[in-house]
Amino acid sequence: MALVAVLQSGRRSSRDGPGDGEADVAKPSFRRPRHAFGNRHLLTFRKNQFSELVERTVDALKGNIAEASVEDVQNVLSKIRRQFDEVRCEADRKEAELLTLRQEIRFWESEAKPPEDQDHYNGFVRKAVVEKLGEASTELEQAIETQRVYQHMVERLLREQRILQQKVLLMENYLDRKSREVEAKQHFSRRINEDKVEKIVKLEMLEQDVHLERTVCTTAISDLSAAIERRRHDVNQGEDFENWRYDIALEAATEAFEATAGRYRKIYAIEKLTGNCLQRLTFDQAEQSQATEDGFQRIREVTGLTDVMDIVHKFLNRDVEHEQLRNTVREAEARLHQLREEEASRPREDALVDAKPETRGLGVEVTEFEQMLEDIRHDQSDVQEQLKQSTLLVDSLKRWAHQLTKSLAPIQEMKAVQSESDLPRFFHHLVQVVHEFLDRAHAEMPDVRLVKITSEATQKDFSDQGKLLHDKDFMRSNCRIVTADQNVKEERRKKDPQAGEDERMDMEFANERERVKKEAVDRDLRPRAKVARGRARN
């Protein structure tokens, strides 16, 4: 209640008359016209809270609200500090008077010492003194409470001032609401306490405020409407500019596409001519290959070999194969000798450890289980490899299905493949979409018309290609197949000192091929060996 009273007194002092530092606020102020507020200086003889709120709102739209709000809060803070100092001085004065009265009372009581039955002494009445003492205590408590309230207000205002720069918009609304509440309470108390003359004056002032607010609102609405119209014009101009840019880009893209399509058509015609030339050269090479194959067939009948590369390497790497066979024999003999020594030394070691037949049987069983464990590990690795390949295949199918769904979207919408279970449904739907696409294509272009157009285009292409094939310059510039004369030159070139490098590469290729063959044979024989061991154990 003390806080409300202080705020009401501050507001009343600012509304009823100028204070010590507020004389300039109550005087009529003439302002320089700004933007569309050219006639506003005729209506600013008296400000009120609503007109200030409207002006702050217009200034906030134009970016000038922060400085005005900070200045208002600083003014309020200075007023509250001044009032706090006045109340504090009054409280200190009353406290000093109370102490003086208590000292005088103690002095007179100690000096006089009146009898207990008397209630007055030397002009002082006990009851009056007690009442004054109670009143002084009450006033002191109120002053202390007011002091605490003002201290709390000062602390809160200092804290709010530190964070005012970040929350200026929110605090503006809060201050407006509180100001309206305080003004309503002041108006209610003034309407009760003031007389008829003051009511008439206030009514005239309110009428003037209404007229001023109406004029300010009208001017502010006109300014806001002009600003909105200007921004709408800017937006429309930006949209027109974007449409112009889109049209220019579309026209440039169309020209580039037409130029690229023409270039691709020329390239396609040249590639078709090249393909026909290559086809003709392929037929010539096929005849030569047939003659070479007949020669290799006679070599197969003589040597007993079936693969062409085996025959070639047989004649090229005879010395190397003989050397490899000698090395293999030496390694096999060394391995056999080592196995014989291990077999000869094994019974003596077994006899030293345990000579019982049950132990030997246990060792055989352990060996069989170890072999079975090794087979299971191999099978697990194979299954994991198959699982990896299957996973990669399913992922590739998903990506392909996603791309195909986008490609066939203009024909018919297809559900996207989210998991592996959606693939059968996707392929079933794909068959229907393909049939529908073919039916639509046949309906748009019948078979008779398509055959006629194709035959005409083919005949024209063959006539153009025939002319180009008879052109020697074209053949010399675009031929990509090595002719028979060039093959002979290549065979002669192979007889130079680099022949050793070619032979080494052929030898490495043959060794790698043998290794792959051996791994394939072992992979095929592994399940059979497993089945045989299972039957032996049973």
UniProtKB/TrEMBL annotation:
Region (Disordered): 1-29, 487-538
Composition bias type Basic and acidic residues, residue spans: 487-527
Keyword Coiled coil in record: yes
Keyword Coiled coil part of the UniProt annotation: yes
GO cellular component: ciliary basal body; ciliary rootlet; ciliary tip
GO biological process assignments: cilium movement; outer dynein arm assembly
Residue ranges, compositional bias (Basic residues): 528-538
Keywords noted in UniProt: Coiled coil
Coiled-coil ranges (or none): 70-111
Protein name as annotated: Lipase protein
Organism: Symbiodinium natans
Encoding gene (name): Lipase
